[in-house]
Amino acid sequence: MPKLRVQSFAISIDGYGAGPGQDLQNPLGVGGPELMEWFFQTRTWRRMHGHDDGETGVDNGIVEQGLAGIGAWILGRNMFGPVRGPWPDDSWKGWWGDEPPYHTPVFVLTHHPRAPLRMAGGTEFRFVTEGIHAALEQARAAAGGLDVRLGGGVSTIRQYLRAALIDELHLAIRPVLLGSGEHLFSGIDMRALGYECTNSIAGERATHVFLRKRA
After folding, report:
1. Residue 138: which H helix or E strand, with range?
2. CA angle 154, 192, 73 (to 5 degrees)
3. For residue 160, how many other CB atoms are within 10 A of its CB?
4. pLDDT score of 125 more than 90
5. Which of 70-74, 97-101, 175-179, 194-198 comes out lowest in average pLDDT?
6. CB of 171 closer than 8 Å to CB of 208
7. Which residues form the Bacterial bifunctional deaminase-reductase C-terminal domain (predicted)?
8. What is the pTM of this model?
9. 7 Cβ contact partners less than 8 Å away, ≥ 6 residues apart
C-alpha cells in the first residue's frame, strides 16, 4: 500500500521546524537555515545544484533513502513561495529556478486557484483549493503506485498529523535552539494518534528519528 511520508524534515531540539519572520529574504524564518545545515553538506544536495563534491556519510545516505520511491509531493503554499492572498499573476514559479528538484507532480495547498505550472525536469505544480484530503487523493492518483512525500511546511504537516494521515515521519533533529517560530508538535498528542518511534540514528550533523503510525 503506497504511503504518505515525511522525509528529512529538520527541527531544532526545542521542537521548531521554522524560525520566526518568514519572508522572501528568510524563507525558513530567522535562524531557520541552521536547521538545514546537515542537509546542505550532503553530496545529494550538492549534486542538485550542479556540484560534484559533498559528504557521503550517514546524513547523505538518509537523504537518498528519502528520495527513493516517491511518485508525487504535497507542499503547503508557504513552501512554494512567499506570496500571500490571491495570486497577483503567474510570475512566481517557486524557490528553485527553472528546474525544481521534484521531477514529479507536486500538489500545492492554497485557498486561491491557479492554473497548473509545468517546469523543466518533469515537475508540474498543481494547486489544490479543496483541502488536505483532496490533495492527498490527487497525489496518490498521480503517484502511479509509488509513495507520496509530504514536504511541509510545519502547518501543513501538523494538519496531516492531526488527521493521522501520515504513515511515516523522518525528523532530522539539529542540535540548535531556535526559541520561537513554528513548533511542530505543540498541542498534538502523537501517542494518542497512534504514532510510535521505530528507530533513531546519529548522523554527522543531525540525529535522525523515525516515527510510524501503528497499523
Report:
1. helix 132-142
2. 35
3. 20
4. yes
5. 97-101
6. yes
7. 8-200
8. 0.94
9. 65, 66, 67, 149, 170
As beta bridge partners, residue 16 has 183
Instruction: State how beta strands 105-109 and 70-76 pair.
Output: parallel
Instruction: Name the band, by pLDDT with cuts 50, 70 and 90, for residue 201.
Output: very high
The three grid cell numbers given for residue 196, joined into one nine-digit string: 510510535
The closest of 15, 4, 2 to 132, measured between CA atoms, is: 4
What cell numbers appear for 171 in the block? 525528523
Arithmetic mean of pLDDT over the chain: 95
What cell numbers appear for 122 in the block?
Answer: 518533469
Look at residues 160, 67, 86, 184 and name the one whose alpha carbon lies nearest to residue 127.
Answer: 86
Q: What phi, psi does 158 have (nearest 5°)?
A: -60, -40
Distances from the Cα of 132 to the Cα of 36, 45, 103, 137, 191, angstroms: 26, 28, 21, 9, 22
- Structure confidence by residue, pLDDT tens digits, 27-58: 888 999 999 999 999 999 898 878 889 999 99
Contact 139, 105 (CB under 8 A): yes
Dihedral sign (CA 34, 39, 42, 48): negative
